[in-house]
Amino acid sequence: MAFVVGQSVNTVYGPGVVTEVRANDFVCTLKNWALAQGQSPTLYLAAESLTAIPSAFPGSLVKTVWGDSTVLKIRADNVFICAPVGWKLAQGQPPTLYLNPFGSTNPKAIVPPGFSM
User: Fold this and answer.
1) What does pTM read for this prediction?
2) Nearest-CA neighbor of 5 among 20, 15, 16?
3) pLDDT tens-digit map of 85-95
4) Confidence of residue 107 (pLDDT cuts 50, 70, 90)
5) Quick one: 43 and 70 in the same domain?
6) Which of 68, 93, 100, 116 reaches 20 to 30 Å from 55, CA-CA?
7) Euclidean distance between CA atoms 63 and 84, whole angstroms
8) Is the pLDDT score of 102 beyond 60?
9) 15-71 pLDDT, tens per residue?
10) Share in percent of the chain as helix, strand, coil (round to 5)
11) 70 and 29 within one domain
């Protein structure tokens, strides 16, 4: 797959953004990892180490088939862990949703901001 500058990707180190496209690899920065001075490490990764993800990161509000939800975490296998907004279980805590936006069984399980269901 061809990636472009500014595209949201999941790297082998977590979610990030492509900052440069080079002849043999891609330069990326991470969204959830900071070095001692606060900047992201620079990653030089082959295309096989990247997968495209919707423009949603931990903390983003997304639409799911179960209503608006907050992304809590994105696992390395591209599963989005989300908590529905305004939905509480018997103990007062929200359920945890494990969603695969790339799954064939429900391709609209999660929709990033700016898109519709």
Assistant:
1) 0.51
2) 20
3) 988 998 888 89
4) very low
5) no
6) 93
7) 9
8) no
9) 888 899 999 999 999 877 888 888 889 999 999 999 887 667 778 788 788 888 888
10) 5, 40, 60
11) no
The reply to whether 3 falls in a domain is: no
Token pair for residue 1? 């797959």
Q: Does 47 lie in the same domain as 12?
A: yes
The length of the chain is: 117
State the residue for tokens 């064939």. Answer: 104
DSSP per-residue letters across 67-113 = EEEEEEEE-TTSPEEEEETT---TTS----EEE-TT-SS-TTSEE-T
Residue 2 domain-assigned (yes or no): no
Asked if residue 68 belongs to a domain, the reply is yes
Q: Which two tokens stand for residue 49?
A: 């180490």
C-alpha count within 13 angstroms, C-beta hemisphere, residue 92: 0
Q: Are residues 21 and 42 in the same domain?
A: yes
